[in-house]
Amino acid sequence: MEKETSQLADMSAEEKRLLLRRMLSNKIEGGEDSENSNDIPEEFYNFEKFSGHRMIMEHKETFRALALNNPYFSVHEGVSDHNTHIGGKDYINYSGYNYLGLSGHPEVSAAAKAAIDRYGTSVSASRIVSGEISLHQELEKALAEIHGTESAVALVSGYSTNVAVIGHLFGPNDLLLHDSLIHNSVVTGCLLSGARRMMFPHNDWQALDDLLKENRRHHQRVLIIIEGVYSMDGDIADLPRCIEIKNRHKCLLMVDEAHAAGVIGPRGFGTHDHFGVDGSEVDIWMGTLSKAFASCGGYICGTHALIDNLKFNAPGAVLFSVGISPANTAAALAAAVIIKREPERAERLRARSQLFLHRAKLRGLNTEPACGTGVIPIILGNSILCLRLGEKLLEAGINVHPILYPAVPESASRLRFFITCNLTEEEVVYTVDTIADALQLLNG
Length: 444
Ligand SMILES: Cc1ncc(COP(=O)(O)O)c(C=O)c1O
Description:
Layout: H1 2-6, H2 13-28, H3 51-65, E1 83-86, E2 89-93, H4 106-119, H5 127-131, H6 134-147, E3 151-155, H7 158-169, E4 175-179, H8 184-193, E5 196-200, H9 205-215, E6 222-227, H10 239-248, E7 252-256, H11 271-275, E8 284-288, E9 298-302, H12 304-313, H13 326-341, H14 344-362, E10 375-379, H15 383-395, E11 398-399, E12 401-403, E13 414-418, H16 425-442
Helix pairs in contact: 4-13, 6-13, 7-8, 14-16, 15-16
The structure holds pyridoxal-5'-phosphate.
């Protein structure tokens, strides 16, 4: 019971009411040691009564009542590139982050197949025990080169990279300061660490500086966490400012490059390349292999001191978790080779993104604050309108997903377009014009 009451802050009003009822009935029936379990509410042991399940049922009911198709878990029947095939129909595709068209690229697929032929489909152990293959080291060398750091380590998932790394490096005496639009995986890592967590308003370096002036001295290690390119809005963090601030306050800086690596910068090497900053100026570069790198996994780039610490000590990173699979490692490595060899892919992606923005402005669509990266939101501020517009676009052969509350506030609900390098100019112009026309119809 003591444990339960200490969790009160995390409980919904309904859960608190049930707990109170249980505490009272325990008293009446002679204490909580009572052998009688009849009074334990179903909400505590039946998944159908869990609030998450109830929420899904409510969503389904809303879709039914509004005669809308459920847009989630649509099944793709081939590679998700600038075009895709769903339910026997072809679509122009804005729902996948195959930024450079390397998932489905023959060189990448061949590398993955060759790795399976040589190593099988699993490395069958954590790397520290006996799961190491030379492809892991080759991939990590390529990632360190891209981010301009001494070393790198690749893990099985982007999400768990943030969780395991932040959770391992920081603890209760530390402060973690992150942008308000940071990815959920960073928040989960912060919670795991037990450190104090504070948010600063999106891309507001002045507010970050003020928070540090007030709080830096009360903590031991302080980590600032930003994204190079923000996953919902597509804008770019002010990296030089953040570096100046972290140096002045003697903090550490972590940059999540999930949507920046392979996309921005003259070489497509990410945020340091975009600003012409040396990679060593940032303490922790984090990235995923699931986007420009056409694979599955996550990675950290930094100094030998950081990477060795993670490799030998971080649970869920290299320790107590299997090594990244041969096929995924080989695919990411082949993609890294192509990223270095063909910077024109990232250049083309950015040109398509600028064309999209230019055309959207002409047609009066709200894409703020997108700036020509691989993410462009069309902000509608109305979930139902997002769903209806998504359906109209689907009918017109355009596949894009709505982002609704609680992923963003209702006033910021949107359609999010991932811009990929194989999109043609005609596809982009057709898409923007179709959005504008459909919106006019829907708004009456
Ligand atoms: C900014 C950011 N960080 C981390 C992740 C997690 O990466 P993954 O999906 O590869 O696990 C994502 C996923 O989309 C992301 O957008």
